[in-house]
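Subject: sequence -> structure tokens, single chain

Hey, anyone have a minute? Need the predicted structure for the following. Not urgent.
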Amino acid sequence: MEVFLECLPCTLRQAIEASRMATGDRALQQAIMEEVVRLLAAFPQYKSSPELGRVVHQLVKERTGAADPYKRIKMESIAKALQLYPVLKEFLAGQQDQLYWALKIAVTGNSIDAAVSTKIEIKEQIEAELTKELALCDLESFAEELRQAKRLLLIGDNAGETVFDRILLEKLAADGLELIYAVRSEPVINDATLEDAYASGLAEVARIVSTGCNVPGLLLEECTPEFQEIFRTVDLIISKGQGNYETLGDLERGIYFLLKAKCAPIATLLGVKVNDYVFFRR
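Reply:
Had a minute. Here:
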């Protein structure tokens, strides 16, 4: 999937944020941004926005020596999400179509985890986001495939979402599925790594694996042989988030994409509005 022009200011913003989190040295921040601008000028050579993002964030890490600039933010988002966990479980227990709402909880995670500060605000935010219907929803075909499936792979996205994904996986585990949860091979932006997935309690319900790929997405050709075998042989794949969609959306392999359309290019591509939630089979 191409690097959209709209990706450039977004990547620049991320570079500024990451450099400020990684170092307080303003001269170094300026030097990093000068290099980032040169990288952005060469954007046509990259096949997707996540590939461009990887180069930019590797630059920040190399120049500052900070291996994980977003570590504090990730830990805080996981902690907030764990506070929400019992509330979300109670919410799901009260729904009739539990598969639909488990999917909705999972995809809502990215909107909630960094936006709450008190229990009242947490509850209000959940209600505001969870009541939004999925703009695209291939639930019927997914449920049909699910009845025949034995192994399911969920490709994770942001660290804070891992707790919300856990609720979806707990629902799927009740159907007797073997569950595998995939994360990035090393820190990039606020995407989930092995450490983040274990901190969320996902190991209680799924086998956690690293893809071996360090882009904020997934390039199958860069993944470990172990992960490529998993990807090839599982019965069902759910891919979370825009970054994974941007890197996997053109594959022939049938994949269910679960994401929030956070920008105009992706929303237009999917035929939905910005901030709509979608669950669809490619």
